[in-house]
Design goal:
459 residues, mainly alpha, Growth Hormone, Chain: A, 19 helices, 72% helix, transmembrane helix, MFS_trans_sf
Length: 459
């Protein structure tokens, strides 16, 4: 079936739901460690508390991709039913996360939240490949990245903006401040609303051969066997991209889980106070704890705001690519390589900056890497796999995202960063080195069709 080229606003509408998805991910990535610390988690334990996120992705995304490939409704299409289910569950989880009274409940809500976001996210990746001709794949994924950048920047700044409006950052021991609670409630609302916008403004192509599709649906397939078979038959380019993804996502998981303790401690000099060090029955010590805790919470707001800068720079990166890829081909391999190099430099510079103001520059560089990670690998992948199995391959590709995160959560970050010393900021150096390795791994990609789709026939 010949797919027609779509205009900017058509692609914008079909990708707009990613605004809500990124609100969820940005609030989770920017403030989940803060919630854990507020509830008494020690720094070394934080990566393990995050393990729910990659584990759910490992399980959920291939399954959702497989099921959505075999779904069709004349009214709701193939991918949109999963957008809606994920949006409803994610919105509920987002609202209740900051009200967790204990660490185990916060970790449990993270599990539910990440599983729900994954239900919506994987079909969005497949939808771009479903709807767009190959010549527009880079363009489509870059517009998706533009929307993700907008969502990252706004959501990362929400607690700080709400605090500026007069909402308190102070809270008793073990209680998440109201500024964070309101931010997560806003995120829940935006998540649901943006997904609904895409659902009601976007149509989907039916299966090319409806009769063959119906026959395939009646077969009693074992989806586990099918997924394993697809893993065994991965295209060579997909495997090479997987190596790049491994090091890329190890770096970003390190940032999400440890940037808050690392930067509040090393850059702001306001680490989270350790409750066991205070006697709350002593009014002087109680007051001292409250002062230190409020300073930590305010510094955490600023860490979140600075992290939002990487969303802003990824948005600028995506906007430049949108303008370029609308009229010309782009060499995806070289763009991705140099973007990852810039991100790696941004992480390493965090160790050396003399004041918090320089964090903006670090996160601008990281944003270039983030913008490329969200677009170039998927554009290369979508040009290298069977269109009829796009959903399941997008889900399987997610394995290369979640496996490094699981390894990092199970002690990989602590093990490697401790080789440099006990300071938490060393984790950011490891993130930088990991991105530099990911950049070099782009040299493995040799498939010319994946590197740069040629629009003219015969090229």
């Amino acid at each position: 079936m010949e797919k027609q080229k779509l205009g900017f606003w058509q692609i914008w509408n079909m990708s707009f739901g990613f605004l809500g998805i990124q609100f969820g991910f940005a609030l989770q990535g920017g403030f989940m460690s803060r919630i854990f610390q507020t509830l008494g988690a020690e720094k070394d334990a934080i990566p393990l508390l995050w393990i729910a996120a990659p584990l759910t992705g490992l399980i959920v995304q291939p399954i959702i991709g497989y099921i959505s490939d075999k779904t069709w409704s004349a009214r709701w299409g193939r991918r949109r039913p999963f957008f809606l289910i994920g949006a409803i569950l994610s919105s509920i989880a987002l609202f209740f996360v900051p009200y967790s009274p204990t660490l185990w409940m916060a970790a449990g809500f993270l599990w539910i939240l990440d599983a729900s976001i994954n239900i919506s996210m994987e079909p969005f990746r497949a939808l771009v490949a479903d709807k767009l001709p190959d010549s527009q794949r880079s363009y489509g994924f870059v517009i998706q990245t533009l929307i993700i950048g907008i969502g990252t920047w706004i959501a990362s700044n929400l607690p700080w903006m709400i605090s500026q409006l007069g909402v308190s950052d102070s809270a008793p021991s073990g209680v998440v401040p109201m500024s964070v609670k309101i931010a997560f409630a806003i995120g829940a609302f935006v998540f649901l609303l943006s997904i609904l916008y895409t659902i009601f403004t976007t149509s989907e192509y039916p299966p090319e051969d409806m009769e063959a599709f119906k026959i395939e649906k009646t077969k009693k397939n074992n989806f586990v066997t099918d997924i394993v078979d697809n893993i065994g038959n991965m295209p060579s380019t997909m495997k090479k991209l997987g190596v790049i993804q491994f090091f890329s996502w190890f770096a970003f998981f390190t940032m999400w889980s440890l940037a808050n303790p690392a930067l509040t401690e090393h850059v702001f000099n306001n680490p989270a106070p350790i409750e066991a060090s205070f006697n709350f029955k002593d009014p002087i010590q109680l007051a001292d704890f409250q002062v230190q805790n409020t300073a930590f919470q305010k510094s955490s707001n600023l860490v979140g705001a600075y992290m939002g800068v990487y969303g802003l720079s990824s948005m600028a990166f995506a906007l430049i690519l949108v303008l370029y890829t609308a009229i010309r081909n782009v060499n995806r391999k070289w763009v991705h390589m140099f973007s990852l190099f810039l991100g790696g430099i941004g992480f390493i510079l965090m160790y050396y900056i003399p004041s918090p103001a320089y964090l903006s520059g670090c996160f601008i560089l990281i944003g270039f890497a983030w913008g490329s990670i969200l677009s170039m690998p998927y554009a290369m992948l979508s040009s290298a796999v069977d269109p009829n199995r796009m959903g399941v391959f997008m889900g399987i590709f997610n394995m290369f995202i979640v496996l490094p995160q699981i390894i990092a959560a199970l002690g990989g970050i602590n093990l490697v960063s401790n080789l440099l010393g006990k300071e938490t900021i060393n984790a950011m150096i490891i993130a930088g080195i990991s991105l530099l390795i990911a950049g070099l791994c782009n040299l493995l990609i040799t498939d010319k069709h994946a590197i740069s789709y040629q629009i003219k026939e015969g090229n």
